[in-house]
Amino acid sequence: MSSSSTPADRPQYTADQLRNALHDFYGGVDSSSAETCGHIYGHGDPHHEMSMLQKITATTMLDYDGRIASSGGGSGGPPPLVDELLERASEFHANHGPMLPLHEIVRGKSPCMALAAEFKRASPSKGDIAPHLDAGDQAGVYFEAGASVISVLTEERWFKGGLADLTSARLSTTAAAKKEGSTRPAILRKDFVTSTYQIAEAAAAGADTVLLIVATTPSNVLKELIDFARSIGMEPLVEVHALVELDVAIDAGAKVIGVNNRNLHTFQLDLAQTEKVAEELKKRGLSFHHDHCEAGNADGPQITLCALSGMSSAHDVNRYRKAGVGMCLIGESLMRASDPSLAIRGLCLDPKDYEACQSISGGAYTGGTKIIKVCGLTNADDALVACRAGANLIGVIFAEKSKRKVTDDRAREIVDAVRKFGERSDRANVGVATPNGSPVSTLVAKCHALERASLRPLVVGVFQNSPLDVVRETVEACGLDMVQLHGSEGMEAANSKNFGVPALRVVDIELGSDGEQKSSSDIAATILKKVTTDPVAILLDTSIKGDKHGGGGTGKTFDWTIAESIQNMGLPVIIAGGLTPENIGDAVGKVRPWGVDVAGGVEAGPGVKDHDKVQKFVGGVKRAAAEASKGF
Fold first, then answer.
1. Alpha-carbon gap, residue 389 to 239, rounded angstroms
2. Which of 210, 238, 281, 339 could form a disulfide with 286 if both were Cys (CB 3.0 to 4.6 A apart)?
3. What letters, b where the CB count within 10 A reaches 16 and e where it falls short, cover 101-117?
């Protein structure tokens, strides 16, 4: 039953009403509810504060109760009963084709990874993502690009969806598949399902399957919902996060299990969670590996395993392919991508494609801030403060005009201190792969390699228009792990062959330009056209009009929407220029850049770091990045 009410029309519930709704759903707090709700966050704790997931679930239940109770006096008439919904479902599927079994759809893609592409207009934490998009149009694009499942958010308040979106996606993809003579994708209703009524209305709207979230569902209710779904021809996707939830799903008879890498109570994201569940299934002797699926094989895997949340690249897809996962659900990056078809192709769902191009670009970069660089260090003590605070990259400057320029001897002292901190005795191996693909896909691959290598801090030497042989000599003399080119050397100069180590390439964002004002997206597109496969990553910094030697050290910010536009086109970037402990939360929260770089913003004086500011800056980045990563 889809509501056409506006946000202002919807009832608002008190905390007590929400708690009471959950209390009733959980069956109170007696011994029997302890057995069926032991896996539910906060159950039995009188001081428990509801998580956002629980608030949304309770609100959804109360909304349904209210519509059913009050609809008799409305012009729309009373809501249909479950039996009436099932009659509508039978009629719909008779006219538009039968339901598709989810587990067979996923297994039929082996050895390729099945993709569940999600339509999601908004979320509680991210706000609007793409409210202007049409569900039918987007689903058609997803299907033609290779999606096997279309996931449609139908929750109205926070996600701005509805059952009309689901029906639109179903009809659009059915028509497209008929035209191509191919199998249409399965349609998944993603919502906060707590009743057989919601499953029946999903079927009536054209759904093939529904999401059931173990984290909010008593075990006895979960089994009831699974059994009901199967009785009408649906195989539900049962979502788990914690291992205790896996117990509940298996006991209830779940066949298709999706692992949400994000804990929806705490919002913490852990991409290793799917792998942990895979290992647990192995320990229990339950078969699930996607590579073992064969068409028509009745003795195939007992469980179809899926990875949900937090993925955006072919690197992620390949990671889960190795773990035996059969389907990845990807939403936000595809909704934000300027070209969803290109984004899906970049995911390399076919392992042969991944091996052929090693492209790990897959739509807009939405992975959040991973790299923190503290630059302009002039002594080992300051460098260690940055390391202890959690910086990934320690920048030492060799540019002649810089007031933070260091000698080779001082740089060597910093390198030795950073190596000792990281418990290593030699230069770090970033492990950058040989370019084999487009510049963007190659740089995405290199960014992932740098993320892994910089878990222990690396030292970056910053140069500006120095002869390349001088840069190489300095690298060897000081033991630098990386270099950064901050002048007019050109993009190709950043090739690691020139120095024996990877190089960051700075792209100046000029302030004070005259003439026609270009949009952020136009500027971003111009920058991307100039990017080559040579650097390890791109760093955007502010420059002043008329500076012929390159920017840096201006203390001024540029228009961060340029960085956001570049990342929406698939390329992660580091931003610099005017960052301080006071504005870094805003920068990370709004732009979610792959990396941030600070120098003057954490200084007590030129080349002398204020230790308190360094700690506040790095801590601010991490807090803002964690907050920005929250959401459904």
1. 36
2. 281
3. bbbebbbbbbebbbbbb
CA distance 496 to 492: 10
How far apart (Å, rounded) are the C-alpha atoms in residues 552 and 400?
13
Distance, in Å, from the CA atom of 170 to the CA atom of 172, rounded to the nearest integer, reads: 6
DSSP state of 269: B
The pLDDT value given to residue 163: 98
3-state DSSP call for residue 207?
coil
Q: Which pLDDT score is estimated for 552?
A: 62
For the record, the structure tokens of 528 come out as 């991307």
Q: What is the predicted pLDDT for the residue at 576?
A: 96
Rounded to whole angstroms, the Cα distance separating 522 from 501 reads 32
pLDDT value of position 297: 56
Residue type, 264: L
Distance CA 228, CA 73 (A): 30
CA gap 508, 518 in Å, rounded: 15
Residue 29 pLDDT: 61
N residues, the chain: 632
Instruction: Tell me the two tokens of residue 487.
Output: 């002048």
Please list the rounded mean pLDDT of every run of 10 residues in the chain (632 residues).
53 96 85 84 90 96 87 58 95 97 96 97 84 96 97 97 98 97 97 97 98 97 98 98 96 97 83 94 95 67 93 85 96 84 89 69 79 97 94 96 95 96 86 74 90 90 96 97 94 95 94 64 93 96 67 80 94 96 95 96 94 95 83 61
Taking the C-alpha atoms of residue 592 and residue 269, their distance in angstroms, rounded to an integer, is 15
CA distance 130 to 122: 7
Residues of 24-47 as b/e, b for ≥16 C-beta within 10 angstroms? ebbbeeeeebeebbebbbebeeee
**Which residue type sits at 373?**
K
Crossing angle for the helix pair 314-322 and 439-453, nearest 10 degrees?
60
Distance in angstroms (rounded) separating the CA atoms of residues 494 and 473:
15
Other Cβ atoms closer than 10 A to 352: 10
Among 512, 500, 463, CA closest to 484: 463
Find tokens 């302890």 and name the residue: 34
Residue 630 token pair = 């929250």
pTM over 0.85: no
Which ranges in 50-146 belong to alpha helices (H)? 52-70, 82-96, 102-107, 135-145
Instruction: Quote the pLDDT of residue 549.
Output: 46
Extract the tokens encoding 10. 């919807």
**The token pair that represents 222 in the structure block:** 């979960």
Question: Looking at residue 181, what is its pLDDT?
Answer: 96
Cα separation of 54 and 19, whole Å?
9
For residue 103, give both structure tokens.
């587990």
CB distance 110 to 351 below 8 Å: no
